[in-house]
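Subject: Protein entry, chain in single-letter code together with its fold tokens

Category: Structural biology, sequence-to-fold work with a learned token vocabulary.

Notation: Tokens come from a learned vocabulary of local backbone shapes, not from coordinates.

Start of record: The labelled sequence and token lines come straight after this line.
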Amino acid sequence: MSDIPAGFERVPCPGCGGERHTLTYTGAPIPGAPDFHFQIVRCEDCGLHFTNPRPLICELGKYYPDDYPPYRGEEEGKAIGGWFRSLILRDAFGSPALRPSTLGHLAARAVTTFRRAQWFGFGVEWRGRGQLLDFGCGAGKFLRRMHALGWDVTGIDFSQTAVDVVRASGLRALQGTLPHPQLRPGSFDVVTMRQALEHVPDPRLILRSAWDLLDHNGMLFIQVPNHASWEVRRFGDASLCVDLPRHLNHFTPATLEAMLKREGMQKVAVWQDSHASWVRKAAARATGSPRESRLLRSSTACRVAAALALLARQGNELVATAVKT
């Protein structure tokens, strides 16, 4: 019998090409191959955790069915919401032409003194000409919001289903990955990768390609799950941070920063965030400790748990930026 199931392969480290690694996590049995379990290993050279063995590249698509949640569209008219939410988002992330009046700006800043603008909807501050590429755009919820805020947006996703949803809303989207022949070097002011880099077989190639697409003073913005989070240790497979076998790369603060710097990126910053909704979903999916799982299905308990995890530097999300000088 082979030491790996059909449709899987053993790979060197995606972060450095190293061949030496140590098993650190054993997950659920592989569907259709009950004698095998999903595994995460740690590279002995660069420290990156990665799924090994992992699905063959030609097999990855079957783990992303058309009803995969990020591919689902949403109702029209929800890009930036009502008047008050729109005011906050336009002030924080909008184009100069859409910024609120002085009074509106003061009102928005009064609110964001106590609650981050990101609470009202994720966005990035205006840069350059407002040209934005979202890698792994899914059904385009973020693209529609940024377009409504005055940005010139483009999405890219390997799912044709997701790309069709974006195009149906009138926005530009490309099917495929990076590098892409229809994207020119230096043509974007911001490239975002939100919960995407953990899914790709060759993260270094993706990062280099995205960096090439940035104009002078352009920013690369990345969000990935934190493999060093409290949730991974407590909930295992139930944690949204694990998601085997879709997550091929499992970053910690140190390994994400090291990879960005190894690829020659400048002004690198890495920090953590913590989402109560992720804690709640993990608790709902967990099979162990029913009492704890029931407690963490409370919104208040989840907010407290997320805040404590962040204080302990074990938040469930990593955020990184790099600026091209």
Observations:
- The mean pLDDT is 93.
